[in-house]
Prior knowledge:
This protein is an alpha/beta fold and 389 residues long. 36% of the residues lie in helices and 16% in strands.
Amino acid sequence: MSLARNVDLLRRLPKLDGLRFAELGRSADSSSPLQEVTGFGDNPGALRMFAFVPTQLQRPRALVVVLHGCGQTAAGYDLGAGWATLARHYGFALLMPEQQRVNNGNTCFNWFNPEDTARDSGEARSIREMIAHMVEAHRIDPRRIFITGLSAGGGMTSVMLATYPEVFAAGAVIAGLPYGIASNLREALDGMFHSPTRPARDLGDLVRNASDHRGPWPRISVWHGSADRTVNPGNANEIVKQWLDLHDLPDVPMAETNVDGYPRQAWWNKDGETLVESYAITDMAHGTPLGLADNDQRYGMEGAFLIEAGISSSYHIAKFFGLTGWIPDATKKSEAKPAKPALTPAPHLARSIRTAAAEQPADAKGEATRSFDLGQIITRALTAAGLMK
């Protein structure tokens, strides 16, 4: 396919899907648990910040940063991928940066723009400032910060992992691209549609040259549909190669298994901790895979680029981050306490009447010789019920 046709396709497809996302975004915005945060710090990338912090947080406190895809909003992607539901269920804080149309006509994060993909510059710096704000405002453990994203958000996830590797314990890229393979639109399109292969060492050097960090490196989970026609599935292999080189791991997987019917490859360190994993979602197009989780719960809902595949990527990514083992403290649960019985003078009133009747002097026929003092009886009943002193 020619570059001209690629450019034309890139222009047309996001606009068509963007119409559907606009509707999803509007409906999601009205009911979303996400709250916008302003004044979070420097914002050279002119992004918006949205966050959700459940009332119960696991300890140490964790934060997941989620980056939406093209044509999406933070609330729309959260509704589709189910991250706020996971955050509430498993007690972690959620940060969802949002792109503005003034920065990108299709609301894509600018994962290939040099001004936005360098450390302490542009959109990367804005996201870093948001993370710092969340850490301070909500006492997040700096060792438990994670990031994930779809498509252009996946590309920006690669950017954040490369430019701020010391910030993240792990990341997950869904239908995204490796860091550093593009510095303009032409190169971005070439990477998206063709995914040229590169030596692993060269890919690793792109990350090493993005900061002064020399390890340890974040762990990474890579997800891609095998029938993706928007971002070539070969990009998943290139991301894996990039991070295998950084972790000094062999090309051959240490384990190949099936999870919910899909092949998963994994590599781990000498301690048995998985450092790199890769899911190939067979026959799936471009998007985030949805389905039942291991706990038989469903997170998210179908929409544009949110695809029912029988596997919940959001849940498995949260599991890879080490966030799904938490159980809320039963002593802190807001359990409904049994209601105290309503105070009522009725039984006391009946008892007072019976007592008064028994105390009445009677004539020869057994009839009371004087009438009840009803006011006194009611007063006695109210006092006995605790409603009068």
